Amino acid sequence: MAATRKNSKARGRILAAGAGLATLGALVAAMPAGASQDSADTAAYGTNGKGWGRMVDVQLLSFNDLHGNLEPPAGSSGQVTHVHEDGTTTKIDAGGVEYLATHLRQAREGNRYSITAAAGDLIGGSPLLSGLFHDEPTVHALNELDLDVTSVGNHEFDEGAVELARMQNGGCHPKEGCFGADKGFEPFGGADFPYLAANVTDEKTNKPLLDPTFIWEKDGVRIGFIGVTLEGTPNIVTAEGVKGLKFGDEVETINKYTKILERKGVKSIVALVHEGGAPASPAYNYDCDSPGPGDGISGPIVDIAKNVSPQVDAMITGHTHQAYVCTVPDPSGKPRLVTSASAFGKLYTDTTLTYDRRTKDIVRTAVGSANHVVTRDVAKAEDMSKLIADWKQLADPVANRPQGWIAADINGRGSTAYEKPLGDLIADAQLEGLAPADKGGAQLALMNPGGIRADLVHKASGSEGDGVVTYGEAFTVQPFTNMMHVVDLTGANLISALKQQVSGSNLGSPKILQVSKGLTYTLDMTKTGADRVVEGTIKLNGQPIDPSKTYRVAMNEFLSGGGDGFPALATGTNKLVGPSDLDVFNAYLAAHSSASAPLPVPAADRITVVK
Q: Has UniProt tagged this entry with the keyword Transferase (predicted)?
């Protein structure tokens, strides 16, 4: 049960590459003297562009930001948008590794050269089925998906470098032991694929934490991969998770290792970058190159792509959970592919890289790519169904416990508004749980929007009945088990924190904190930077925030450490550590809802937005 096939793929790949080279050598040696290289190519490989000729089509399948979503994501988290030629849109249910496996396996059919790669955040922030077991089930699934290589993402560091090393190398959890040992599960063997972390180094030794590069080989075809995560990872992960590590500049790192790969004779290079952009449309099939190459995308990945060495032939990206296939010009002005496949296993990208055996490089003008929906109208992959069933027998006794009731969908991740209904609910739960004097005396609570990982969906996910919120569903919303903190903040620092939502590192991509009842203000998006938070409108229970007064503020440990670009929140003093955010949330659900009186959808009217 739940066994891995540690390194079996890698051994097979090396053997296949060696056999191909031996065959080529024998054929070339047998050719008449004076025969051309083209003749040698034809004699050895024939003329089929799919695998036997000078030009070889290499299939690159890719995805990103799976976040342990083994089962189909619920609600809007499990949908993608399709735009039709007339401009109308349709929502399509998508995702689930049982379907992802089938789609990938079907896509590989008929492709002699096929690579599967990913761009980070495959684990971390995961639903209970994976998160409860520190994402071992997801690594098992990725092994069975025949993943060849991935970069790390910021969420691979949620539990620190030691735990990430365990994900790579295997071994039982240091505190919780070997999961499922009593059910016949084999000890965790780790990932069959390499995690790449070229820009993550040890502060003391300056050596990469994990392998920086990976070279895929078959029949003499060699493609190099460089994996990086965003330089700003320390700003969006708890301090403990990145302790002792340095995160380097993405462009400098990729360019450095591009030269190293070239010195090894590798001229075909793909960068796996856990950083992304924002397309002009949420539709997965939106034309990102309209009206011109790369015109339909903005965000950090654009500057990265424009500065990464022209020797890099394609960039597989992630982090922003968006879908795009763009051609962004490289520093020489030549178009280069930049892709992302949304998140949660809802899409995969199929890219054709045309490899020239003579130059050993990718022919850029022949590269083609498209995102494809992981629809749920195909047969489920039986091995994935069994893997899920095996882990569910361990998880279900915990996951199925009812925690509360809701009257309708309460959107969090699925809401595009700055103030999210589920954000209000979570902030209210934190305020109520930490307001008593012996619990911290909180007067208000703040919640980071990125910590809300899903929606609360009214439709039953199993046999619990519509409207029931199970422990597993609540865990999916808040999977990090952050401990709650209550701190003293001056009114001046509280005002500064609200302004940091739209300034500093959050200037280009605002991070609007979710606020508890009683805290109100106006957000004027017609202005720029910190001026977008209209200072005179910031009030608590109708009274203006006094810059000289001290307030007791509840927030999770990530925010109280200044995470997400909020250094003002790290100035808090007189800290009291409370229960976990999940425990506080579940207690609130139990206290404020019942089958006959479910929780209504919050109005989300605390932040007045001017556009």
A: no
